[in-house]
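With this grant's support, we have paired protein sequences with backbone structure tokens. One protein thus recorded is set out beneath this paragraph:

_____
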Amino acid sequence: MADIVTIVAEPRERVGKGASRAARRAGQVPAVIYGDNKEPEAIQIPQNEVIRLLNRGGFMSHTFEVKVGKKTTTVLPRDLQLHPVSDMPMHIDFLRLGKGAVVTMEVPIKVVGEEVSPGLKRGGVINYTRHEIEVHVPANAIPEFIEVSVAELDINEAVKISDVKLPKGVEPTITDRDFTICAIVAPSGLKSSSNAADEGEEEAAAEEGGEE
């Protein structure tokens, strides 16, 4: 679990499109905190601070402490609006996290064991079925990533969710099947050579049959 970062914000006295545009012109990013059976709270955050946090990576999967005056609220980003041309942050929705809250979110995978994988040593490549896994997770223990090992995989073998050791309290949202996360497959050149060899064997067998 990553360290919780504190974001210093200010209350927004006015809401609406006009007020949001004014906030952005003043170098602020409008945001709202909602959830936990409490009234929504309109805030604004310095744009340069939001950009700094976005550049750290993993913004949508991190919990933050938002400090407004003397009050601090634990939150999780749930929606981030970016400008369609400049990609500058336009608005953020934060989910207020109460004590014992469990959230549903996608956590990125991190592949390990590549240096010892038999399949990769033979020239195979990793084919990803998914780069994130959707899970139910305690809001105070969101992992930065889920580790997926390919250390024992050979070509045409796969890692399924049952092969992954999930952090404590983390459960996949898909429970009705043992879904694949990634596999090691033969590179296209090796596949072509193998297919050509198979076709050659079939042609030879057909010719032998014809001679009889």
